[in-house]
Amino acid sequence: MKPDIRLKLLPLLCLQAAAGWAAAAERLEEVSVTATREARATAEVPQAIAVVGKAELEDKKMFNLKEATQGIPGVLIDSKNGGFDARLIIRGAGLKAAYGIREIMVLRDGVPLSDPDSFTRLDFIDTQDIERIEIAKGPGNLFAAGSVGGAVQILSKSVFDDAANNLKLGVGSEGTQNYHLRYGKTGGQQALALTATHRKMDNDWRYWNQFDTTQTSLKHGLMLDGGTLESEVSYAEANMQLPGAMNQALYEQFVRTGEQTGTSEAWKHSGRYSKVWFLNSKYEKEFGDFTFKPRVYYNTWYHYHPVTGIINETEDWVWNLGADIEGQWRHRGGSLVGGVTLRQERTPDARKYQYRDYTTGFGGRITATLSDAKGALAEIDDATSLLTGVYLQESWRPTERWIVDIGLRYDVVRFEDDNNQIWKYDYVSGKYVAGAGITHSEKTFRLPAPKLAVSYRLSDGLHLFGMVAQAGQIPAQSEFSSNPALNAPISRNHELGLKGRGKGWQFDASAYYNPVKNEIVQQSNGGVTSYVNAGKTDKRGMELTGSVELGRGWEVGGHYGYADYSYESFNEVIGGTNYDRSGKQLPFVPRHQYGLFLGWKPASGWRLRLASNSWGEYWLDNANSQKYEGWEWITNLSVAYERDGHSLTLNLDNLFDEHYAAEVKKDTTGKVSYTAAAPRTLMLTYRYGF
Fold first, then answer.
1. In terms of CATH architecture, what is 3-689?
2. pTM of the prediction?
3. Residue 526: per-residue pLDDT
């Protein structure tokens, strides 16, 4: 660690910028469509939200969502290998996800990417085609079906925007490559846009850590008598190796050298290799004061997914078909939004296999895999999930200063599963044993989500808001399959906040109390992952983010998040013994999260952004038996120059080459494992806009 250099650099640059103080230009207010399903200035949205706009995204290499969202308080995100994978936690929601994103609804252009059980994969998202990202935190928005963590809306470049045409070529350290082309043409009432992207990282600093993806998309737009019809078809192939964790000795070696030469786990060939087709079509038309917005969408995917003890393969492709029929009526006192959602996922003949190649030790225990080739058939699964939902929200404006949002979303999710388990991996003996045979399960969850939120304009630049909102969390199918008694968590958020917007400055501040009944807790016991309900969890926190323009193109800002998350009532059973965890803090979530940034964008065509983030110490387990110190002032730098449509951007992530752990956890047997964060990486990107 090099604290002296880091701590001195940012304040020095900030002072240099402050010396050039001048009158700042009027800031353009960002607009959000995620929290309320209507376009509204973020200052008028009575909820904690964050918008990452086009200008900020231009300075990122955008290989994953982490690069765009890591400076938002209350949002914890990291990527195991710098590819499309991301572990996303918003105010504690998503904490139990071992892989992918759970408890948080993710959408692209209003189309859900999350499965009906709230599980989200990001392998078919072209991050080079993102225009902006909106994050609505916690319960309280109409998009988030069965998700207590809120919603992440990814907005892509419009098919009607010819100015979005560009060619991008990038190369960097660790075998990083990026090739991207977007070409569109608008003529008459139609528009067509083709997008193609290939990204690749060798990541030689760590064993079994490669990533590559190839994505193509064709968008079509049609203007029809005052309405618009937009359709898209895309295809993606993604290959991602998932590196294993380290024990204490391997981690200490990584801290010294910046390299991870292996994993202490027996499963050395985990990964996900997928192919995805994604189709969607949306129509929007105004009939006087009424706007009609139907959407239909379909995706189908195949994956080969080696994980701990087993290899997953969807030989018959999984498909997900859905529709969202929405209408908005603008009346004298405000607007009324309502609609219905219908979505079904079908997983036919999904199969699990034993590993074919591995070594064994005493008693036949598997000690190491030698490849990711599949062996004997272990399990056949046939599953269906169906989500139906209705939503309604009145946005009432009694005076020019007041906005009152009264809404309700009600979702019903039904699961059916037929399973034939021939073999299973037994964690106690460390080898394959006979499975449970043929089983059938059914489960239905009913989740009401009411909301009352108020925004009051104190002055032209200040908006006060308050809200009370509730949401139910759909358990993942894998969770209640291992524990059929699992109940759906109910999260109720109480929040007060203040938003300021002015000439060259802005800030958002909020404080919340969010009790959760039946929080689903992940338990790890010697490699066995199980899920149980906690009686009640209390989540208290506050968040602050802001920025100010200093003149001559300089801008400085920062963020701070405080989180006090504890179990009010939770009994954890380990080895047949009941342990009371009441009063203990939730693991992994730091109490303090903070960062600073400095930006420079003069009229000369240069751009510079220096951002530094910190993640405070946290507990490793539910027992609060050990802490990890976290990490401080991990700094990213981007420098760009643009002229006549040509631009050159240099990205330096982890500028000071800190060697630290992105995640540390401790299971109920006392085993501590470390997941390494990436050392310094460099990338140079040429972009031509035409």
1. Beta Barrel (2.40)
2. 0.92
3. 60
